Amino acid sequence: MQGKALPCRFDRPGALLYDSPMETLLLILAALAVTTLGTLVGLGGGFIFVPLMIFLLPERTPADLTYLSLVMVMFNAWSATHRYSRMGRVDFRTGWIFGVATVIPAILGVFLVARMKMDSYAPVFGGVLIAAAGLLVFRQLAPAGVTPGAGEGLGAQRTVRRLTDADGVVYEYAFNLPLGTALSSGVGFISSFFGVGGGIVHVPLMTQALRFPVHVATATSMFVLAISATVGVMTHLLHGERGVGLATAAAVGVGGLIGGQIGALLSRRMKGRTILFLLAAAMCVVGVRLVARVVLS
Fold this sequence. Notes:
By secondary structure, the chain is mainly alpha-helical. The protein has 11 helices and 2 strands, in the order ααααααββααααα.
């Protein structure tokens, strides 16, 4: 006797997956909303998406949520990279070096998060969220660069770059390449393990520690993130530790892609500074709640 087909969950690599239509719609709308807001204030949206999903879909595993968020971030990052490349602000020579440095850490992040339980993952993410909120405020209050000589502490020879963007603006800067490569490796792990865009960490490091011009740092960091997120998504697909339908993941990615474009359009009409400070406060509150939920339980 044949029974009615029921929604099924992933149980082996290559299995066909089905998700609740309402849950899928919720994920798509969330991806659309957070990437619109994220792009408006210069973020990828992952730092908003993951904690939101922790509260709305508590039955999902950390691997599920980071996989979905990475798909969203991947679509958004490649879209932004294309936009920035047309503006001539991506330092591709440096970006490829930094991007390759994220590959192994990104793979390790996927394997580690697949072994995490929500009770231990949520407070760790909460702590990172509080730190990220502080970085958001720091990015607004701190100057774009630092005094000459910053980042030279390892005694490494300085790497010099000269970049001219589509508007004819010339950017000439020097930085410590080994230090930048090491920092990018750490950002790659953070991005993959937490399913977030590493730009919130990477851009301040590039501008403050490596003395990149802020426009070049933002554009190049997005290219590095695109590489790291793609590696993370591919590792999730090959590793098989996910309980999310491929169609749902793709739809979330498209939602993130559209949200990024909407955010870019709104950014021309709205000032994101006030929104950013409000977002930082909200991230801090959510971070405290994630930590307190486990500590007080």
